[in-house]
């Protein structure tokens, strides 16, 4: 049988004529079995190999068959479209964006790195605690300090391995001060220890003053 050829269907690029490979792509090969079967072989598949291929038989009435190749590609995080960290004030909304590529298109799952549940608040301020959240982006309404931390964007598409990226959420809030004992008594000429506890983000600058408002030196 003469006049058998393989072509890339979408642009009609000729890959082979009978038993001779004519493309410069060295990953392409032709396997002919007893002038009956013409097999197109593509080694080390790449993304660019995705598409349909046509086997064409140049008889009096041209015949053709088309076969298609779908190249499965594991997920990969698109760094240029994914934030690494975000800082908001307490009470504001936060949007954590994470994009991934691959074939099939990867699905995004969110988890907290510390294992705590993700707090999702709706418009009525009702909070739902979830081990993981699916979909992109992750929307956090009216965040509070308890939601601050590292979040993992996990991309998977059933083609191993899955990949993840850490995104840090910082929540700025004013200092909160509390003391365990507001009144401390001690005998004359003895030592006394006064303690106060401060919570804030970013970390605050702390110091003591006396009743006149004068700063007390440390040490």
UniProtKB/TrEMBL annotation:
Any one annotated GO CC term: neuron projection
Keywords attached to this entry: Cell membrane, Disulfide bond, Glycoprotein, Immunoglobulin domain, Membrane, Repeat, Signal
One of the Pfam families matching this protein, by short name: I-set
Residue intervals passing through the bilayer: none
Ig-like domain segment(s): 75-168
UniProt subcellular location: Cell membrane
Principal subcellular localisation of the protein: membrane
Name the record gives this protein: Ig-like domain-containing protein
């Amino acid at each position: 049988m003469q006049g058998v050829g393989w072509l890339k269907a979408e642009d009609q690029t000729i890959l082979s004529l009978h038993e001779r490979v004519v493309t410069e792509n060295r990953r392409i090969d032709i396997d002919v079995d007893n002038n009956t079967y013409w097999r197109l072989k593509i080694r080390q598949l790449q993304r660019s190999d995705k598409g349909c291929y046509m086997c064409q038989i140049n008889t009096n009435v041209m015949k053709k068959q088309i076969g298609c190749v779908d190249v499965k590609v594991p997920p990969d995080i698109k760094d240029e479209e994914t934030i690494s960290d975000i800082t908001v004030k307490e009470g504001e909304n936060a949007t954590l964006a994470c994009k991934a590529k691959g074939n099939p298109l990867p699905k995004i799952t969110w988890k907290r790195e510390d294992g705590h549940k993700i707090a999702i608040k709706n418009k009525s301020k009702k909070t739902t605690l979830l081990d993981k959240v699916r979909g992109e982006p992750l929307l956090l309404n009216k965040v509070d300090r308890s939601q601050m931390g590292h979040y993992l964007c996990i991309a998977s598409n059933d083609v191993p391995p899955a990949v993840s990226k850490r995104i840090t959420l910082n929540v700025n809030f004013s200092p909160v001060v509390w003391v365990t004992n507001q009144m401390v008594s001690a005998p004359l000429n003895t030592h006394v220890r006064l303690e106060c506890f401060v919570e804030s983000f970013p970390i605050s600058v702390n110091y003591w003053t006396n009743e006149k408002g004068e700063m007390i030196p440390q040490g």
